[in-house]
Amino acid sequence: MNSIRFVQRGAILTSLMLVSLTSTNSAKAEQRACVISEESGATVCGKVTTAKKEAKKSNENSQYRQEAQEIIFVLKGCKRYNPNVICDFVIKNKGAERNFGIGNTNFTDSNGKVYPSYSAKIGNQGTNGVYEVKIIPDINYASTVTFNNIPNSLKEFPVLDVETSVKTFRFRNIVLNKED
Q1: Whole-model pTM?
Q2: pLDDT exceeds cutoff 60 at 130
Q3: CB-based burial of residue 83 (10 Å sphere; 0-12 exposed, 13-18 middle, 19+ buried)?
């Protein structure tokens, strides 16, 4: 059993003990660790997660997740498919069944140039321009917005505005990921 000491500003927990490393194969190793409070002596054990996994969780609960009028609207990311960009969202209705629409959606670059969307899709239904669909409570609806002819020189956008029937959702600092 290895013991690692660390100091975190203002923290009571100051000792970490690696308890075990179990694996069915080397690619899927599970690490567990225990943290012992020097002040109370209490021990808490759990699964060790990587920084990448924690960053993903953080993004889901950060500026890329917004809520208004019982609608949860999450930007999953924007991907470049030359010369187009497709942004993926998840929409969830926490209230009663209702109509929900996506209207004018725009990227704005750092020079103030606006790039309007070409089409929007909610679930498997979509159209060019404004689009509305009935959304049932507690269902995650995949949604996409497509932008045509985005210059290759643009790698990110400071602002993405998505106009909906609820409100205009504004997302900032959108990085355009490359096609897989």
Answers
A1: 0.64
A2: no
A3: exposed
